[in-house]
Amino acid sequence: MTDIYPSRQAATPQLLPRLDPVVHSEWTADAPITREQAAGFDRDGYLVLDDIFSDAEVAHLQAAAGKLLADPAALAPETIIAEPQSKEVRSIFELHRQSDVMARLAADARLAEVARFLLGDEVYLHQSRLNYKPGFKGKEFYWHSDFETWHVEDGMPRMRALSMSILLAENNANNGPLMVIPGSHRSFLACVGETPENHYLSSLKKQEYGVPDEDSLAEMAFEKGIVAPTGKPGTVIIFDCNLMHGSNGNITPFPRSNAFFVYNAVSNRLQAPFGARKPRPYFLAYRGEPEALTARHGPLTQQELAA
């Protein structure tokens, strides 16, 4: 297959046109989001959904996340990523396979049907994780496009994927929230530097390859601005696979955490990596036959899960 988004191949960075739609469905009155929300996602590359979960559902999710963080020995060790120079948990991958509560959340119709609409296809989980940024010590994560990594290292062919971050703690302007450059998803920034062997072992703590150059970043930021979507627990932040984003460190005493799901179109299944010798491991990128998510309706409660 021709690589229409080549990266980590040239000696200088390049800004390439996006050749894929952002919203892959025509809006109709029965869509799971409003016309304005669909237009905003198309324009800005992200969307914030407020108050879609009840207080009881949020508490249920927080309890499930707390259980995972409290007993990492019960998890697959390769799925746990620690903070740089620390043993504090930064991320737990394969979230939906290690927590029934989180698997139910990923399939919830309030999320899955939005993903299906925006991607114009049945969807499956490319990746899932619990992100945790502890107070005082939570490290920054540098600017990047997820698609650049998923394309180069995982073999995702087209821009037909998105991420959903479900906030499990308050994310405010002070505790290292997600930052995005609105509209940056409209171009693909090809990066420099050949992908090292087993790059994921270091990149999940601090990414040094596949990161944008400062001149291109500055041009994007000055032209489009930087926004930090914030919200209370239960808020959902959806962003396009190619949106430039990152986060500052957290030197406040207030930790933040979120459940994070990457939905990919079934028709966009992974191929051989476009710029790495071998693909990343299973817990970072699902490579099997995609199984479309079945949307689940009803409340996220323990009683519903047990029924």
Features:
307 residues, alpha+beta, Jelly Rolls, seven-stranded antiparallel beta sheet, three-stranded antiparallel beta sheet, 9 helices, 12 strands, 25% helix, EctD, Ectoine hydroxylase
Shape descriptor: globular
- List the secondary-structure elements in sequence, H or E: EHEHEEHHHEEHEEEHHEEEH
Task: From the 3D structure, determine the CATH topology.
Answer: Jelly Rolls
Q: How many beta-strand runs?
A: 12
Strand coverage percent:
15-25%
> Which segments are poorly predicted (pLDDT under 50) over 5 or more consecutive residues?
none
Count of distinct structural domains: 1
Q: How many helical stretches?
A: 9
User: Can you summarize the main beta sheet?
Assistant: 7 strands, antiparallel
SS content category: alpha+beta
**Main CATH class:** Mainly Beta
Mean pLDDT: 92
The end-to-end span amounts to 46 Å
At the fourth CATH level, what is the homologous superfamily?
A: q2cbj1_9rhob like domain
The CATH architecture can be named as Sandwich
Secondary structure: helix percent = 25-40%
Rg from Cα: 18 Å
Task: Describe this entry's structure for a reader.
This protein is of the alpha+beta class and about 300 residues long. About 25% of the residues lie in helices and about 20% in strands. It has one domain: Sandwich (Jelly Rolls), CATH 2.60.120. A 7-stranded antiparallel beta sheet has the order 2-10-7-12-5-4-3. Strands 6-11-8 form a 3-stranded antiparallel beta sheet. The longest helix is centred in the first third of the chain and has 16 residues. The radius of gyration is 18 Å and the shape is globular.
